[in-house]
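In this section we walk through a basic example: taking a raw amino acid sequence and producing a predicted 3D structure, encoded as discrete structure tokens. The instruction is simple. Fold the sequence below.
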Amino acid sequence: MSATRKEGARLRTIGNLDIIRRFTWEISSINMYLEELRQFWARTLGISGPQWLILMAISDLDKDDGIPVNVVSKLLHVDPSFVTTQSKLLEKKGLLRRRPSPTDARVVRLSLTEKTQKHLASLNEQYKTIKEFVFQEFDEKELTEFTTKLAMLKTRLEKGLRPPDPRLLRRRPQMRPAAPSRDSSQSKMYSLARLGLSAWACAAPVSAAVNTFNMTSELPSREVWTI
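The resulting token sequence is shown next.
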């Protein structure tokens, strides 16, 4: 089969909106169940789901010297001010420590308290049981490949839904604006719209669910308690 025919077959497959709709709804449902699990784990500490994710981000990333607020916010795709506010509440509960960086006092580094670490250790058996049940249909290779595909999808969604550079939208005097290039954000957004993705309210849950899976793939040596 020629390269042109292969590309045509690939586009026909992608154009099957029934498959895309099913995929989108399945991912949205996965995110809903993951959120329920996060709420379950969070209740064991008397905190909210987002606060639980902050603790898990610190647990996964901390190498014994604390994690900067902006690193946690980037991993969770939230504003740093949100992490700052929530971390102060968690500090009051004795669940994490906030300390200035030894190299830059403007940077606050977050770390778990011994109380939190002991609590996570006490939940290990429950977590292990749930993890084995959820992923029993996957072997390690299959789960790695699946997670890689989800991470790739997350990256493409981030690029496709990113707002275009305002400088590219300015009109030049007495000149007709150039059409968007194939690689521009506008062009990608248009392509997503044609696929029916941008019209779905679950676009955000897709990103959140993919990010949850991606956290496990990027940090294979640490326990991840997002589920």
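Looking at the output, two observations stand out. Residues 181-224 have pLDDT under 50 and may be disordered. Residues 17-43 form the longest helix (27 residues). In the next section we compare this with other chains.
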